[in-house]
Amino acid sequence: MFSSTGTFGAGAAGTGLFGTQAAATTPTNPNKDYELPSPPDDTVQTLRFSPATVQQNFLASGSWDGLVRLWEVNIPSAQQNAQNQVIPPNIQAAPKAQQTAGGPVMDLSYSDDGSKIFFGSTDKTLKMWDLNSNQVTQIGSHDGVIKSVHFIQGGNYQCVMTGSWDKTLKFWDARQPNPMMVIALPERLYAADVLYPMAAVCTAGKQCVVYQLDGTPREFKKVDTSLKNMLRCLSICTDPKTRQPTGFAVGSVEGRVAIQYLNPPQPKDNFTFKCHRVDQSTNVQEIYPVNGVNFHPVHGTLATLGGDCKYSYWDKDSRTKLKTSEKCDQALTTGCFSARGEVFAYGVGYDWGQGHEFSNPAKKPQIFLNYCFEDMKPRKKT
Question: What is the average per-residue pLDDT within 201-209?
Answer without folding.
Answer: 98
